[in-house]
Amino acid sequence: RRQRQMCKETGANDYITKIRMEKAVWLLTHSSLSINEIADQTGFSTSRYFSTVFKQYMGCSPTQYKEEHS
Predict the structure, then answer these.
(1) What's the pTM?
(2) What is the DSSP letter of 45?
(3) What are the DSSP calls for the chain, one per residue?
(4) Which of 12, 53, 64 is nearest to 42 (CA)?
(5) Residues 8-46: pLDDT tens digits?
(6) Which of 22, 23, 19 is nearest to 3 (CA)?
(7) Fewest CB within 10 angstroms: 30, 38, 51, 53, which?
């Protein structure tokens, strides 16, 4: 029920992106997976697109984030 409410407030695509980015952040800081593997695990078609969305959402690249938070 809470997820449905959140989805209505933010829009389905924004909600899905938020969930994917949360998973990506967790994988970046808790695994040794490559950026390509994380992109695949979070449902992005290419690592380039994943990196673009990640940078828009988080304000830095996945590589920068991993270096600063590992």
Answers:
(1) 0.83
(2) S
(3) -HHHHHHHHH-HHHHHHHHHHHHHHHHHHH----HHHHHHHTT-S-HHHHHHHHHHHHSS-HHHHHHHH-
(4) 53
(5) 666 889 999 999 999 999 999 999 999 999 999 999 999
(6) 19
(7) 30
